[in-house]
């Protein structure tokens, strides 16, 4: 599957001189699990349609009543059209350098009483729109339509305006945003993504992409951590979970196969029988 690098893949304006970049995006074609490489942080202000993103930390979705902050890195992105067949958004990209500079100069970050950012999970954040954000988006669109205003300096001011407002509205965003500046521990990242996506049906190739690793590197590190190859480990873990749901909770195979990542009941029954030698129903009835 092809990968799209953002914001480089959107416009030639993303040259070395620009550190904050905005773009009006429209589409009449839905997309499903597109592989996106974000070189910059992204604020995605949805105007029409729906957006779903999957990171190593999990999957989240929004409609046009909210907007996304998406940290730099790899993600799987799906876009659903609105009823009129349109998908529209305004995108605000910010380099890691500018993002860090903002927090280095932000005074409240030194004496915050909220939970330490070292204890928080780094993940995309969906934020509800309000009148201020609606006006901010309108102002951003005005800047985009005026070549004299659409400069890096003005865009930096718009970014700082947005950050100051968001942090003042929600204290928890301060340590969250600061946590984005921290580096992931690779082993911890793999353990996290395994726990979150174990039953989601995400492929090994997609897991490697979300971890920003080649497939061979991901498999090697996975084997070192779990002492098994990814496909075999996921298969065994899902079957163990299935056995518990069938025996201990008394659920039917038809009630659990989708939650375990199987597209249909027959493929789940065959997989279960391969491990336990009996069908799920027979397993439930056994002593």
From TrEMBL:
Keywords: DNA-binding, Transcription, Transcription regulation
Protein's name in the database: AraC-type DNA-binding protein
Origin species: Chryseobacterium taichungense
InterPro entries linked to this entry: ExsA-like_N (IPR054015), Homeodomain-like_sf (IPR009057), HTH_AraC (IPR018060), Tscrpt_reg_AraC-type_HTH (IPR020449)
Molecular function (Gene Ontology), one example: sequence-specific DNA binding
SMART domains tied to this protein: HTH_ARAC
Ranges of residues in domain HTH araC/xylS-type: 188-286
Superkingdom field: Bacteria
